[in-house]
Amino acid sequence: MAGNMIEDLVNSFGGPVLEDLGKRLGLPADTVKGAIPVVTGLAVAGLNRIAKQPGGSDQIANLFKGVGDRMGDRDLDTFVKEADPAKSAELLQALAGSNSVENITANLAKKTGLSTDSVGQLLGVAMPAVVGTMDKMAKEQGLDATGVTDLIEQGASALQGKGIDDLDTLMDNVPGISDDIKRGIKKLFGGS
Fold first, then answer.
1. Contact 51, 154 (CB under 8 A)
2. What is the CA radius of gyration of the chain?
3. What is the pLDDT of residue 162?
4. Could you tell me what percent of the chain has a pLDDT over 70?
5. Burial 38-58 (b: 16+ CB within 10 A, else e)
6. Is the pLDDT reported for residue 128 higher than 90?
7. Region of residue 170 (phi > 0: left; psi between -120 and 50: alpha; otherwise: beta)
8. In the chain, what are the domain boundaries?
9. Which 3 state secondary structure label does DSSP give 68?
10. d(Cα 77, Cα 85) in Å, to the nearest integer?
């Protein structure tokens, strides 16, 4: 069932959603299509980490509520057209855990060859869409927070062998102090 959840999450981003998200980000739909399994994997990996913490089910329930409130009654396509990526900072940081969103974005940009800005925009729109869709699926299955936590743990193990096995590297590859300094200088003064 968890493997189906992952597939269903990825497949919920059908043609029109991919096209609209791609237009919004200035990326080809095929590029977005290739990124959605990774974004889904990052969401599941982040939620799995939260699930393992004391009170993890409650934290997940709160994240789902926040994303659900943000999505409202909009369908997935309408949400990706209208979502403000800047409003995803709290969700992204919760999923990143002890790592920084900037570092995960940089890791994913390096892996995909996309710019960090494009990856940041993609995560800012797609991550709440993935988490919101996961919440809707859980509600449709009648799952409470504990049931969702169990499903997420199964989903995280189901990700192995799906071509996104390096999620831990993306999530855990924390930069050293020199990387933080370089990134800070680049942010302040531009350049590479």
1. no
2. 16
3. 46
4. 74
5. bbbbbbbbbbbbbbeeeebbe
6. yes
7. alpha
8. 2-189
9. helix
10. 15
